[in-house]
Amino acid sequence: MRVGVMGCAEIARRRMLPAMKAHPLIEVTAVASRDAAKAAETARLFDCRPVVGYDALLADDSVQAVYVPLPAALHAPWVKAALAAGKHVLAEKPLTTEPARTRELIGQARARELVLMENVMFVHHAQHAVVRRLVAQGEIGELLSLDATFTIPALPDDDIRHQPELGGGSLYDVGVYPVRAAVHFLQGELEVRGAVLERPSGRRVDTAGAVLLRGPGGVTAHLTFGMEHAYRSRYELSGSTGRILVDRAFTPPADHVPQILIESRAGTRSCPLPPDDQVANALSAFVSAVRTGTPSSAECLAQADLLADIRRAAGLDG
């Protein structure tokens, strides 16, 4: 599949472009930037063609699909333009900052028989499938709660994640991970019962948050996130007879050896798993969806609704 990359964002250069270049079913055809020098340098690193301007990339008939790593607030117009140009789209999370726009784009993709996929990579890591299987097998009894946390150290003041006009803020960046974990593991309709988004003096966006969710059957979720904190990336599923704890849950490197901690009536044990590459897996899922024409959008839509509900509950929906 011939892919064009829309922009030279850090995640594209550091994670996605190397993974695309190594993927046996993907050819990186072109990388576009509004800055000709940046496009040329990135294209040189990844052995593809530089393109100046995003419109020029979409006009290229040799490009079958585009990857969109732009700031969140720019996703909607450029994803819409890419779909109108007949391209399949892999877009960084969140797909948009408004549920209505998310539904509009998914509907547009379906109408044109194109694949639109939100790039939430952690759900493609094998360790989470193991966790779901353990829960389904009753390893911890009846599932009662989820506690998920993702925090990162402070960012430079000029980082785009501090700019509200670009869709910045902790909820749309690090908060997506625990929110998606709740959607992924609890399933069913989730109700926001409380939310706090902290916006410190001198900041124009929220830099930390906490959320309480209630799901089907009374299961609860406590989610915390922030971008001025020590690094933490983990979740814990608690049940009537035990719990499962996963550390390095959301952004493990490809050589990381996962260790799932299981506490049950039989005692406590650590379950080591083989390393897995969630970036390569996410790309394979995108290629497979394009080949089969069967993209899934249910979790993306549920996540979009939850993000909007959290902002409303925290009083930041304006």
TrEMBL record:
The keyword Signal does not apply. Residues 130-244 form the GFO/IDH/MocA-like oxidoreductase domain. Pfam families: GFO_IDH_MocA, GFO_IDH_MocA_C3. Residues 1-118 form the Gfo/Idh/MocA-like oxidoreductase N-terminal domain. Keywords: Oxidoreductase. InterPro entries: Gfo/Idh/MocA-like_OxRdtase_N, Gfo/Idh/MocA_domain, GFO_IDH_MocA-like_dom, NAD(P)-bd_dom_sf. Belongs to the Gfo/Idh/MocA family. This is Gfo/Idh/MocA family oxidoreductase. It comes from Streptantibioticus ferralitis.
